[in-house]
Amino acid sequence: MFLNRVAGDYWDQVRELVEDWAARVPSVARRDVVARLRSPHDRQFSAAFWELYLHETFLRAGFEVESHPSVSGPRPPDFRVTRGKERFYVEATCVFGTATGSGATARRQALYEAVDRIHSPNFFLSIDVESIGEAAPRTRRLRADLERWLSSLDPDNIELVLGRDPRGQRFVWEEQGWRVWFRPIPVRIEARGATDHRVLGVFGPGEAQWLDDASELRRTIRSKGKAYGVLDAPLVIAVMVGTPFHDEVDTISALYGTWKVQFDINSPDDARSVRGRDGYWGSPDEWRHTHVSGVLLAHAVAPWRVADEVPELWAHPRATQQVSSLPVWRSAVLADNRIERIEPSQPASSFYGLPAGWPEGEPFSREHLAD
Description:
Layout: H1 2-5, H2 9-23, H3 27-37, H4 42-60, E1 64-67, E2 79-83, E3 86-95, H5 104-115, E4 123-131, H6 140-151, E5 171-175, E6 178-186, E7 200-203, H7 213-225, E8 235-241, H8 248-256, E9 259-264, E10 267-275, E11 282-283, E12 286-287, E13 292-299, E14 312-315, E15 330-335, E16 338-342, H9 348-351, H10 366-369
Parallel strand pairs: 3-8, 4-7, 8-13, 14-15
Antiparallel strand pairs: 1-2, 2-3, 4-6, 5-6, 9-10, 11-12, 13-14, 15-16
């Protein structure tokens, strides 16, 4: 695991936090968590730290936390948390997206993840990987060049052309055996200016045409929601999303249903968009799975990001019993057919007892940052 190998004052602070939090886990559960934290496999580490993060969060919020509590069902969730008369179960799980193999597939995935981090408030990108280099892509300059190119374009004056067609705006990147075509796709006018939307969405021949994180999230929630039998308190499914491509649209589609086009066969021009009935929670005329009071979502939680990450609790509109949000969580609730959000009441740094700007210092020296 990366954290076991990297040196420096910055990383010493991170390791100290992990050790302190692990020491607060009861000894029986601690052995398993620590073993996975020491795993050379990043996904094992990420899953273990997500559980550790949740354990620490509930402790600091004043809950008594039981790991793998005794229940009447086939197996227990990860935690039962109790604070006064409030009690509920929590199951921690992770969604990493489709597993990538080694070699060329992994290098291509690394390119996708790097490009998806660029700042592009007015455009999505189509990407078509014509050839994959023998070495991992050096993406820092590529990201800067793409941002510069996109900022020079007028989203109201773009001819939408995809693939390797010679027409239209394009950015072709060639380096060390790589040849990649990028095409701009304007964001709709009312959604422009947002800084947190997913940049990549359309892929070239041979690639997945559209990402489908919603289906994987829905499958994960459905599996966890039925795994424990009848519980004597509400269940919250806490999902750490490890793929960079997941966004709010995926969450809404997983919980409330994907968008579909509905039209009258006798009037095909009169089409409208409607929510499908494939959402885990169903719809206002038929709510389902009311024993799952909420789904807590967080993105790529890592030890060095605990002061920055804001998990979001999506509350079931008609849960059998609601659970209250914590001061460091954002809440998302359905109200009048739209999602309303309540921002956290306390910064994560103060909640976890960390100074502003933690971890202090630089993670890498200049030579580490060089391409």
